[in-house]
Vacuolar iron transporter (Vigna radiata var. radiata), 218 residues
Amino acid sequence: MANLGARTNGISSNQVEIPIHANGVESKPSEESNIDYSQRAQWLRAAVLGANDGLVSVASLMMGVGAVKKDISAMLVAGFAGLVAGACSMAIGEFVSVYTQYDIEVTQLKREREAANNNGEAQREKLPNPFQAAMASALAFSVGALVPMLAAVFIRNHKIRMGVIGGAVSLALLVFGVIGAVLGKTPVKKSCFRVLIGGWMAMAITFGLTKLAAFAQL
């Protein structure tokens, strides 16, 4: 009976311990803790930068042309040229920048692998992707650049067209600011304020200086 009691006690203790380890209630990590925000920041930075740059630069270019020409064709051609040139420039610049970072991290990884005598698989998963960053920049730039072009294409009245472009760009800047803040876990109001004020300043300066340059030539 003593042995049977010992076995019973042993079985009981095992039955108590096994469900606890199987369920893993205490050791289960939260999904939030598994998110790698450093990896997210790589493509997020390129995409948000590209979208804002495309939006502001093409809108400013169209505003500058609109300051001296009322022809809608001139504004659209200038916007399209800015879209193509800007997308190519963003893609090439981002590719070169991220590839430089990639080379530096690969070299550092080799040093660490030789020193620690391991294969470094965990670090390799976190290496930057220059092709991904370049494509994200080019596509995001193009999406941003389409906003002022689409806002202007169906409006013939020059003054109304300029106002619609300004309004559409302002709304898009707020949307991009919110998206970037939410995905990057940063304050929404500060993000929206920065991109909105920056966009307004770029359009106003381009419009004013172009108007002044055209007036000086008269």
